[in-house]
Amino acid sequence: MATKRRSARMTALELSPEEFRALGHRLVDDVADFLASLPERPVTPGESPVQVRAALGDDPLPEHGADPAALLEEAVRLLCDHSLLNGHPRFFGYITSSPAPIGALGDLLAAAVNPNCGAWGLSPMATEIEAQSVRWIAELIGYPVEAGGLLVSGGNVANLVGVAAARQAGAPWDVRVRGAADPRGQHLCVYATSETHTWLHKATDLLGLGTDCIRWIPPDRRGRADPAALRRLIDADRTAGDVPLVVVGTAGTVSTGAIDPLDELAEICRQEAVWFHVDAAYGGFAAALPDAPPALRALGRADSVAVDPHKWLYVPLEAGCALVRDPAALRGAFSYSPPYYRFTSNSGPHGPPLNYYAFGPQNSRGHRALKVWLALRQGGRAGYVRAIAEDILLARALHDLAIADPELEAWTNSLSITTLRYVPTDVDPRAPGAPAYLDRLNEALLDRLQAGGEAYLSNAVVGGTFLLRACVVNFRTTLADIEALATLVVRLGRELDAELRPEAV
Fold first, then answer.
1. Range of the domain at 73
2. Is the pTM of this model over 0.90?
């Protein structure tokens, strides 16, 4: 009996295999050309919102569809010509890395298969790839590989997951049922320095703790937490009848890359029976280096750690990772099992299947892990150690150039972040009026530099002083780019000093 051929349902969104192949080949060619052209392009077009919106157009939703080839061609032009290019070798602005090309291809494959990584039954291979990726990340930073963990959108959510696990594990009442406010008036307290990223404000807000729960540990002159001050804060809260819940350490602050004394903080948390969470979104992967800063060796002592593969693992956005020493703490913080969830939990020869909806805030989850898994396999431990070490050396080279140049003033250097400022040779930074003028000069310098497209920096404020900040997390950056950056800062600094000084006199 002859088998009937299945007739295709024709919709406006379907592509035949031949059409998809032709479009895909053309798009890959365009992307390859774009990546090759990065060093010759401006880091940013420096356009205003009005200019960008004009390039996009303001058409209403079309009534009828358009040719997909023309649409993709237009999308390539819009994104490549009107974007800030964080993969550019002279992008030093934020802790956003150059994306590994294999990660981009991984995202294409993940989107095509489209597994829902909320439950093992919906995404068997994708779930196992994520679990393996999480184990590899833990291994790379010296964290227990049997820990629980999952991939999330980025550092904000990865840190929130850690604090959520701490909230459930450390509250003396059932916080998921009764909420974070105890009827007896007890408060749950969180400890961190003022250098902590603002994810902490979002997390304490969203988790119902309130930002008033944060006890700010005074930082030392290098922006690190003071362990003695932490002990005093914990003692004061216990005396007041409140509950010390979690201490947050940072492995690589946003402004200067400072690393808290993690080992000392871990010991205090052990003695006080307080959860220890480390925001290692930026600096955590430097723990893989043979000569890693000693403080990073204590990552393995934390109850939870947040790291961002889309920072120093060079994978495309989005990819954050939350690690929690005790997997049961994640399930305790996030798991619900309504009757309409019919996902298997039967154990196989290697344990029960992972259902990631029980480990984090999302149910429906895309396959973020594939790009991480591919990049880790392509680079290997040795490849990542070399790339991260080179980024650190390049940031140190910029610091050395600033020390050597009479018109530059070097400030801080930690991990792959260097801060500096332009100081004209005939200006004494300690003279009356000079600090305000130098702040104004360097703010104007940053604005011109960011708009110019030759290189891209951000800023830091250290001890009340406005500084230029360069962060190197880019496998395309070379020493020539660093030298060009120092020359550019001096050139623009001279131009602006000539423009601004007459007004200041």
1. 17-85
2. yes
